[in-house]
Amino acid sequence: MVTDQAIEFIKRWECNSSPVLTSYWDHQQHSIGYGTRAEGPNITITAEEAERRLKEVLRGFDAGLRNRLKVSLTDAQHTGLLSAAFNLGVGALDYEIIGLVNEGRFQEAADALRGYDHASGVQLPALTARREAEAKLLEAKMRGQPRVDYERTYWLMPPDATVAELFEVAGQSFPSRGTIGFSADDAGIGDLAVRKVVLMYPARQPPGICSWFADHYPGVEVIYEDAMKPISTVTGVSKAKIGLHGSADGSWGNPILGPTLDMVKTGRIESYKALSTEHPDTVDELRKVREDMFIVVRMFAKVNNDRPLVNDFLADTLADCKAWANKGVTHFEVHNEPNLTAEGQGVWKDGEEFADWFKMVASALRAWIPDVKVGWPGLSPGGDIPNVRVAALPFFEQARSAVESADWIGAHCYFRNYSERVSPAGGQYYRNYIRGDKPILITEFSNPSPDVVKEAKALSYLNYWTELDPIVHSAYSFISTASSGFPHEVWSDSPIAEIVGGR
């Protein structure tokens, strides 16, 4: 009847779990082993004998307790009382503490037990600590009672959930530090003021699951919200070309670097976006991997009050673009996020002024590269942020003349979870830019959240590509590599390429 847990608990308080193998004087008797009575001084035993003696003695104390108890105890409560009885004697507990326990007054019994921390009239710190540990066990009125009350959210997976789905839910639930599991009983149990159960994939949950919780675990709040809906495993074939954004550093003027090229191979990438400062021999390397690799190049140069002119921008980019064109590249994105102060907002006061700037660059491109397809640049999505960004959509509308003159429209889309991924304010931001049948290239998309694991990001990207409208020609995950910044977006040193390639 004496549990292993009880034995180990008592050992911790008797000689620090290490048996004394030679008898010693202990207050009122000679003791040995784990505090059991010795026949006299200078007695020696083995560790095995110490263990046997302890178990034998505890069986006697256990029987004495059970003869006096009129109520059922949890294992934890019984351990606390048995430890105290072994140390103090059953008789010392008989009238006050056991009496309170038999009346169900556990808290009072625990408080009374805390007072038994003296020996020969002297309070001993070791006894104070032991009584406190025993009292805490006695206070536990039910198995599984929480140490403190807290709010629990349990993300309940369906019985047929896959490992991939578990990864994805883990990535999305991480910010809330919720619990993920497969047991409805685990989800409902517990003496807590707030218990929430989020049904993942509710259509695949057992029938009547909400009523089941109401019957068996009343008080549980069963919820399902789109914001908490996990990403499923890949549900279809991508309509858009699966693209990867190349080095944020333009490969330092070199052709595509080895690690990035490996990502292209592993991820079975169909389309690649480069900065114009990357060496055009990148085309040759990519076409060795995939003959029909589609490539788009962003004209990369600084635009600010020190270098505001179209001629400044062309001086930095046009020769590079011509070199890319000589390798067969036709699609060029004119600049980047021009509604940001850091990217030139202020050189032009609004979208209309940028439109004039854009059309002058486009004209030069068309003069130098006859077959060029000029792209409107992706804007920083979202509203006004003073001294940082002007709102994307008004800027876009003000630049209508430039948009209409472009051969294709670039878009930037970002999301941190499922609800944002399917929202026109997040992953579907490109829908704000649809103008007739003009192709859209999502030249940047990512999940920049630091709280979502990259395994989950990879799976969400795979789904994202399948969810895009047919008008989206290609979508480029941001970003393969970066020497600084973007730690939560880079593919390097992550399983993203492998997961994407495994589609």
Please outline the helices and strands.
Elements: H1 4-13, E1 20-26, E2 29-33, E3 36-37, H2 47-68, H3 75-88, H4 90-94, H5 97-102, H6 106-113, E4 118-119, E5 122-123, H7 125-139, E6 151-156, H8 163-173, E7 179-181, H9 184-188, E8 194-199, H10 209-216, E9 221-223, E10 241-245, H11 258-266, E11 271-275, H12 282-289, E12 294-298, H13 310-326, E13 331-333, H14 351-368, E14 373-376, H15 392-398, H16 400-405, E15 408-414, H17 418-421, E16 440-446, H18 454-467, E17 472-477, H19 496-501
Parallel strand pairs: 6-7, 6-8, 8-9, 10-11, 10-17, 11-12, 12-13, 13-14, 14-15, 15-16, 16-17
Antiparallel strand pairs: 1-2, 2-3, 4-5
Helix pairs in contact: 1-3, 2-3, 3-7, 6-7, 8-18, 13-14, 14-15
Gap from first CA to last CA: 56 Å
Give the C-level CATH assignment of the largest domain. Alpha Beta
Largest sheet: 8 strands, parallel, barrel
Shape: elongated
Question: What is the correct CATH architecture of the largest domain?
Answer: Alpha-Beta Barrel
Give the CATH superfamily of the largest domain.
Glycosidases
